[in-house]
Structure formats: C-alpha cells, structure tokens
Amino acid sequence: PVSGRPADLLACANYCFEAALRLIRPGKHIRDVSEPLQKIAESFGCTLVEGVMTHNMKQFVIDGNKCVLNRPALDQRVDDAAFEENEVYAIDIVVSTGDGKARVVDEKQTTVFKRALNVEYSLKMKSSRT
C-alpha cells in the first residue's frame, strides 16, 4: 500500500487520465482538455510536467498532426481542432510533486526509432517487391 504524497501523485495521474479519456471525444475541441487537467492536478497539490503532450496516431506514424498540450506554456502553442470519429490518440499524463519541469537524472541515452515517410524503401528480391 502507498500513502502520503506518492499516493496523491498516483491518484492525480489516474484522475487526469480518466478525465482526458472522457474529454477526447468526437465533437469536442483540443482547447477543452488542458484546463480540467490543470484543475485536477491543483486539487491534489501536484503539477503537470511541461512539454508532455497527447497526440493522435495514424497507421505507420507515431506522431500525428493533432496534439494536445497537457500544460500549456507561453513558448508552446498548438492549433485548435475538433476531435473526429475514428481517430486514435496516445494519452500521455506525467505528473510531478515539484515545479513541473523535467530534469535529467541519469545520462543514459534512449532511442526511439520511427519510419521516415518521405524515404522510399525498395526490397532486394523481385518476389518480395511484388
């Protein structure tokens, strides 16, 4: 069992995720998501981490065009759009008990590979190409 501030942090992340799940619906707008998440985080005495965003996904594309800033900042802006049917979103919720700014703890490098859509891949064998 977890108690104290770690329990508040986990409960805050859970409630923020549930709220985002209910707010990302067809007909609603991107601008409607971040304010309720901020209020939930404040009620738990936590802050959402800057720079973390929820974004839509397409086939073979990890990062789509539509994205939602969980914690809007002055130097970051996203275009407002409506959520539509049959869109898939990766909901990322990162909550902190501190000031909400990410810091490097360990210098280990992580690598994420994704396909470059503008590069044409040709297969070696003719049967593979067909």
From TrEMBL:
PANTHER family for the chain: PROLIFERATION-ASSOCIATED PROTEIN 2G4, PROTEASE FAMILY M24 METHIONYL AMINOPEPTIDASE, AMINOPEPTIDASE P
Domain of life of the organism encoding this protein: Eukaryota
Signal peptide as annotated in the record: none
Family: Belongs to the peptidase M24 family.
Name recorded for this polypeptide: Proliferation-associated protein 1
